[in-house]
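Review form for a predicted model. The reviewer records the input and the model, then writes brief findings.
Reviewer: anonymous (R2)
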Amino acid sequence: MANILITGGRGGIGSRLSNYFTSQGHQVRILTRSVSKLKQHTYHWNPSTGEIDLNAFNNLDGIVHLAGEPVLGKRWTKSQKQLLRKSRIDGILCLTKALEQLQKPLKFFAGASAVGYYGLNATTSIANESNPPGNDFLSHLCVEWENAYAPLKAYCERIIIFRIGIVLDAHAGMLKALWPLYRFGLGVCISSGKAVYPWIHYMDLCKAMHWVITTGNSSGTYNLTAPTIDTQLNFHKALRQFSKIPNIAPAIPEWVFTCLLGESAQMVTRGNAVAPKGLLDTGFVFDYTDLKNALSSLLNRV
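Model under review:
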């Protein structure tokens, strides 16, 4: 079993992943900015200033880097775009500097990216890991994010990049925000609902990360999305069905979201279709490939 250091371990994905890796017998360590939350196997760091507790690296096998400001929820102002960039790049630079100082090679480094790499569009053209990046802010951010991992090759035997889709979890992320609206009949369809939402159940995400990290000598880039294509309309219909409450809210035009969220509205009005080709090629088997089954497993527990 491995000693694994996780950044962003207190976030929605990070906390799920920490629990899953622990259940598989690994010793998980967490890097956190909050000094008040320090406890066993938890270490302080501040990527903005370059501070990091080097004790976190003792007998370490690998790192999973998830830290980063959420991309959805705020308008992409100039300052917010800079924060999105710094919250990702500063952490990578801080980890690289620590490994350079210690000169103790790791077995692996797994870093997060996003399916936004392929660009946001209104089509159903399906992208896999070999597709080129898009040409919008989010794709530019992902390219810079992934390029920042390159220097780590000097200190790690394997570099793995996970391009993550919409993670379904009733207690975090998009589903946590949407479900209360549908329970009160206020869920909405966005325009025609044709935007493709590349989703993955949080358990499949945890299993997939563990699979790639621990199976053979896998390296390179992997899309973490379910192998099925679903639109916003599919989500809308499924959530209405699970709520069992008549929906009173009409469809809302795209321009309303653009007025509210500005450029970031593209994430909900356009989306993108992404396939997990690399993951399937390794022999990984998903537990959740049907959207309704995935939502049922999550919402029946709420």
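Findings: The chain has a mean pLDDT of 93.
Further findings: The first helix runs from residue 12 to 23.
Recommendation: see findings above.
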